[in-house]
Amino acid sequence: MDLFLQYLANGVVVGSSYVLVAVGLTLIFGILHVVNFAHGEFYMLGGYAGITASTAFGLPLPASLAVVAAVSCLLGLGAEALLHRGLKNQDQTSSIIASFGLAVALQNAVMVTMGPQPELMHTELAYKAIELGPVFLPAPRALIPPAMLIIVGALFAALRWTWTGRSLRAMAQHETVARLCGVKVRRVAVITFMLGATLAGVAGFMMSAVYMVHPLVGNMIVLKAFIVVIIGGMGSPLGAAAAGLLLGVIESMTSAYLTNGLRDVVGFLLVIAVLLFRPQGLFGRSLERS
Amino acid sequence: MLKLENVVAGYGRTRILHGLSLEVPRGGLVALLGGNGTGKSTCLKAIAGLVTPQDGTVALDGRVINDVAAEDRTAMGLSLVPQGKEIFGGMSVAENLMMGAYHRRRDKAGVAADLEGVYTRFPRLKERRRVLAGMLSGGERQMLSIGRALMSRPTMLLLDEPSAALAPRVVEEIAEAILSLRDLGLTLLLVEQNVGMALEVADYLYVIRGGRIAFERAVDDGVGMDELRDFYLSGAH
Ligand SMILES: Nc1ncnc2c1ncn2[C@@H]1O[C@H](COP(=O)(O)OP(=O)(O)O)[C@@H](O)[C@H]1O
Ligand SMILES: [Mg+2]
């Protein structure tokens, strides 16, 4: 039982990073109908930006976080111009292929500038730990779930109760009527991409103190995020949040009680099952009804 | 107030309007009639900025607005109630109405006052203000769509078949709402399939055929149903 709780905690930590990545991915899909395969690179670059700021420049963590957010916003701005505005009049396949291209370009850019060797963020926090009964978590891990809850909670509150949030939901539900209300597509698109990139970038930043970051880390992350988005119901932020935690926990349990080799496979099996038996997702309640 | 001159517009390579001209005077209630698929909605979309004319001009208060984006025309006082009772199905009735005031969201007091105004006009919406708009009946959806348009404080309202697929009692309600809006000083352009209703409320009439205006007359000058029927039946477009 004690070990089970430890595995559960480990799963929630990793799952929290999935939530951050997947919520942004599902927003970009739900609001702009862009399938963004470069989303894993938002995570990867968040990790590198954070490591550079904190390790190379010795900035304190809050300042590093601000750097990560700034880099992510710029990245979101560029990605929007390329994948959304630039391809607005093309069909969806174009943006899918373009996002693949963007992913590869970003991977290689980082490979050239940072080198292929994996990096870990070193912080003072690593020497602290939190013990909750039988559960033991080093501080960099323990901070991830509460940080995720704060960020995602703030995001959902903003979507629900602010004019900007309302305009994003309006655009997801009915673009034409939203435009007739005076909502500018471009503004919504930029905000959505910036949000998505920042959520993923912050996840990559926080996780870079837990797992090594390398230029190709986004490949696996984006696949995980798509698994989460499908399980949660395409375009449903709440579903992605629930499914992200679920996937993290299931992976952790699989690795603990079955075999570690199945850890990265179990999610795909889950997706196949969901697509077969409940294609709208386990928690399907998309932006269109939120 | 609104003037279209030789507007040519369509979708991609398909041209639907072949040089359409019409005029709506300030405070007027003008009806635009025509058979199915003749381009009535396309005409309203050209006025609202959802389709861009390839030729000709759309002018509001003497200013050509061809290049103004749909998003910006709301703030100029133009508001379209689109065909099909389109609303935000996943938002509450109150949120739908709020969205109508998006372009003047900083005016908190004004938005709150206008919300009460819409509730007074359509008490059904007040009763159902917390309900998801997707759950509303057809009549309620139409009221919500009109209410949403009014929340932008328009000077000119474009209505696309507001009476379609509604029970006669509800059509009567909508017609009364339209007349009361006219009495408030709003300028209205009404597209209708329901000729009876259009003749009842409008003061001027256009009939569109083949992407052009084929007939126009002040309603007071008398318009025979037979005369109109000719335009519908003989009308290949
Ligand atoms: N979005 C669109 N894309 C392509 N063709 C369209 C579109 N909307 C309408 N049409 C075509 O344009 C013509 C006129 O449509 P519309 O203006 O909606 O007619 P009406 O409102 O008079 O019934 C129709 O033949 C219709 O098929
Ligand atoms: Mg129509």
Task: Provide a short characterization of the protein structure.
The complex is a heterodimer of chains A (290) and B (237). Chain A has 290 residues and is mainly α.
Can you walk me through this structure?
The complex is a heterodimer of chains A (290) and B (237). Chain A is mainly α and 290 residues long. Chain A has a single domain (2-119, 129-289), classed as ABC transporter involved in vitamin B12 uptake, BtuC (Orthogonal Bundle). In chain A, 72% of the residues lie in helices and 3% in strands. In chain A, strands 1-2 form a two-stranded antiparallel sheet. In chain A, helix 1 (2-32) runs parallel beside helix 6 (144-161), helix 1 (2-32) packs antiparallel against helix 11 (237-258) and helix 2 runs parallel beside helix 4 (92-114). With 237 residues, chain B is α/β, with parallel strands linked by helices. Chain B has a domain at 2-83 and 154-234: P-loop containing nucleotide triphosphate hydrolases (Rossmann fold). Helix content of chain B is 36%, strand content 26%. In chain B, the strands form two sheets. Chain B has a six-stranded mixed β-sheet with strand order 6-7-8-3-9-10, with helices on both faces. In chain B, helix 3 runs parallel beside helix 6 (138-150). The interface between A and B is medium-sized, with 22 and 29 residues. Residues 40-41, 83, 160 of chain B line the site of magnesium ion (MG).
Task: Give the SSE layout.
The complex is a heterodimer of chains A (about 290) and B (about 240).
Chain A: H1 2-32, H2 39-56, H3 61-85, H4 92-114, E1 129-132, E2 135-138, H5 139-142, H6 144-161, H7 163-173, H8 175-180, H9 185-207, H10 217-232, H11 237-258, H12 266-277
Antiparallel strand pairs in A: 1-2
Helix pairs in contact in A: 1-6, 1-9, 1-10, 1-11, 2-3, 2-4, 2-9, 2-10, 3-4, 3-9, 6-7, 10-11, 10-12
Chain B: E1 2-11, E2 14-24, E3 29-33, H1 40-48, E4 55-60, E5 63-64, H2 70-73, E6 78-81, H3 93-100, H4 108-121, H5 123-127, H6 138-150, E7 156-160, H7 168-183, E8 187-192, H8 195-201, E9 204-209, E10 212-218, H9 225-233
Helix pairs in contact in B: 3-6
Bound molecules: adenosine-5'-diphosphate and magnesium ion.
